[in-house]
Every structure is written in structure tokens, then in C-alpha cells.
């Protein structure tokens, strides 16, 4: 089954599909190895890991697509792209959708912020008009070549215009052809329940890092599943965990020290080789290298 169709079926279940946010191929491999069924490319994480900068619209379309393509190539589960605002108007959206679809993504997030955008849990957000966003979604639907490629329309209207307007926008986006509605930063359980009940399309929400949370309260996945939420993204948890891990390791070796016996600070070499699939490469070498060359290489 195609990745797009797999993803669409999982979302149709409305059983709170958890999609951790990844920033590179390594984090994507780790997510798959941990047993998750789908991945969300994290614009926040990509901006931080690739540029060392915040999620305020600095990463280019080429940078975002290239990094997301590497994730797709590294795993066998569906990967959703972070299309941000579509990199401009509806015409830019057409190219954005096609580039991500050509990269092998199973779907894309498109949001109604003004370009350049910012992280949905930051202050200072501005929105395009409902009319403009509706036309951008229609352009995205027109652009996709696979009807199962998921268009996830995100609205940041709760923080800017309130919940009533956010729901109105969400239903307009659904009517325009969005397959999934990403309601950014609802601030209470009751607000999420209202969105599930009043938004026509399956609902996606964001639990930030799943540790401290952002604007949205941390709610048990099982509770969200019972509510009928379709998708739960955790977009920044992995990049925060990576930063914490590196800070802890650097703190241990600062001042010309060694971290002898601090196995808690890092995976072992053998573990890391397994994570990145060295054994898979060895199997391919055994299959496709000349037998004598393989024997010499590994002294067998």
C-alpha cells in the first residue's frame, strides 16, 4: 500500500495517531525503531538543526524539501511534510506541494499565517484572510498528483481571533478540500472537544514536547483517542531531547575532562551502528560485491 494511502487510512480511524516531529534522517530512523507508525517533519526542528536558528520562516523551500527527503529515504513509514505557509501565495503553494510529493512525502501541513511565519506557540502571529487560505488549499488540492496525498490545513486563529473564528476557518478549509484540520494551540480540554464536534474534517492537535507542553495542556493520548482526535503531533520533543543530551555530554567533558564510565551520556558504538543500519549495509555487500572482494574486505 502506498504511504499516502496508509496515512489516510490511519487518520480516518480518528484514534489519535501519534506522530513525533523529526529534524533529520537519524531522528526519523529512531522514531520508526521506537514503533511509531508515521512521522511529522518538524519545521521547528529543521530550522534549529540545519540553521541553528528559530522557527520564524528562515529555512528555504529547497532546504526544507532536501531535509525531508532524507527522512523519507531513511524509513518505511509515512512522512508528513511541514509546508509552513506554502512559501508565499497560492502559486507558490503549487510548487511546494509538488516538490514535497516528488520527495515521497505522504502529506503536507499548510498554515494560514502571514509569511514569514513563526512557531505556533510563539507570540506575534498574523493571519492571511480566510479567502486567501481557501484559495491556497484549493491550489494544493489541484497540485497534488495522488488523491491520497494528505492536505493538513492548519489554522492559528485561536490565538489571534478566538475559537469561534478558528472553527469557522477550519470548516471553510475543509470545504476547500483539506483532508485534515490542524487546530493549533487550543488551550483547554473543552476547546478540543468542541473542535472535534464542530469541525467537519478529522482533527489534529499539537502537544509540543509532551513534557512541559506549550499552549495546549498535556492530555493523555488515550483520552484524546476517546474524544475522537485523529492525529497528535509532538513536533519539538526530539530536538529538545537532542539539545539536552548534547549539553549534558559537553558539560561532562568540559575543562579537558573525560567522561569515563558515564555510559548514561551516550549510546555505545555497537548500539549506534545498529541504529544507522550498518548490518544492512554488510548484508548488501555480501549480496552484491564479488565474493572474493568481500572475503578480502572482511578477511573471511
Quick tags:
alpha/beta; 2 domains; eight-stranded parallel barrel; TIM Barrel; 300 residues
Continuous helix count? 14
Q: How many domains comprise the coordinates? A: 2
Q: What gap, in angstroms, lies between the N and C termini?
A: 40 Å
Q: Spell out the CATH superfamily of the largest domain.
A: Phosphoenolpyruvate-binding domains
- pLDDT < 50 stretches: none
Cα-atom radius of gyration: 21 Å
Helix content percent band: 40-55%
What does this structure look like?
With 300 residues, the protein is α/β, with parallel strands linked by helices. It folds into two domains: 3-242, Phosphoenolpyruvate-binding domains (TIM Barrel, Alpha-Beta Barrel), CATH 3.20.20.60; 267-298, no CATH class. It has 14 helices and eight strands. It has helices spanning 3-12, 25-33, 43-51, 61-74, 90-102, 130-143, 157-161, 163-175, 189-198, 221-227, 237-253, 269-275, 278-288, 291-298, and strands spanning 17-22, 39-41, 79-82, 107-111, 150-155, 180-183, 203-206, 231-234. The protein has an eight-stranded parallel β-barrel with strand order 1-2-3-4-5-6-7-8, surrounded by ten helices. Strand 3, helix 5 (90-102) and strand 4 form a beta-alpha-beta unit. Helix 2 (25-33) runs parallel beside helix 4 and helix 5 (90-102) packs parallel to helix 6. The longest helix has 17 residues, at 237-253. The relative contact order is 0.12. The mean pLDDT is 96.
